[in-house]
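Quick one:
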Amino acid sequence: MDFEGLPIDVDLSLMELDRMDYEESLYRFLRDGWRWIDPSPFADGWALEAVAEHLEAVAWGDIKNLIINIPPRMGKSSITSVAFPAWVWAQRRISPTSGPSVQFLHASYDQKLSLRDSVKCRRLIDSPWYQSMWGDRFNLVGDQNTKFRFDNNTNGSRLSTSVGSALTGEGGSIIVVDDPNAAMEAANAASIEATNEWWDIALSTRLNDARTGAFVVIQQRLGEEDLTGHILSTNSGNWTHLCLPMRYDPSRSFTTSIGWSDPRTEDGELLDPDRFGETQVKELEIKLGPWASAGQLQQSPTPRGGGIFKRDWWQLWESPDDSFPPMEYVLVSADTAYTEKETNDPTGCTVWGLWYDKGAPRVMLMYAWRKHLEMNGVYTPRLPDETNGE
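Output:
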């Protein structure tokens, strides 16, 4: 609790102390309000607490754009789409992203999921616990109190929508995208592309004020081109990335913009062994297979060490005179494109050679180039001995 600014001799009631405590900590708010969110017992865990800390930073204005990658069934929707809006509206600190006047826009790949969390959020706000603490801060208005949208009497609102829906005239102070990609559509390139286009064309422009508003994207990774991958690959905006793999991978350790780092130290250490122990995680890994496990559990769409082709298989060729081994055959592969625009894929060409070493087949990438060319364009690459070793 932060009592800065309060007189030393102030006589605070226990309820007021609790209220201040909850307002300082989204995690404690979630824990004690859980009974009105979900019938199952609340499960403590540092991973969920890390999510809460980063959402708090969004409310305080310390993070403008936040991506959270976390395995399924870790309580991400309960904290992000249910507790977070209710907690923000309970704040006495008033800012564009804090206080009962904040307008929320929540989106998910499935309208049913978005509506489910909207109903839970409203139920939490209507609960005797919440009303006893913050009932004097605002009231839900009767003329706009539906599953899709509910407003309060201080101009705050929570609107639910789904990926691909029209958003003309709608916006938010905080826009939350919870599971923008469906796991069943992970291999559907058209679905992935449609989601990314919807983000680029529709949702990314829906902040009420781009200077003060905030985006939150939370999902399990489903592929290199899912919404997380798409956002990070464009390098647009200053995004804080909180990545929580099921098994700790020291090679991917990081520190976020608020100074948070993964507390685990051992390679393979589980994210939440009380919720998902070694037996349960191994069962999931077998059920999902290496590719889905890499994304949904490890938050890395490419399996560690590679999938079909392992990284360890690839090594630099060393020869005293820089010569190639005697090749059995050489293959040239070209992937053509038809535009000089730098935003599009280039034309690429690779040269591969196959030879045998002690009876075992070996493959070498002998040469490669890429360039943006117009259709019918002609490009003559320089030979390796003309490139000064480039």
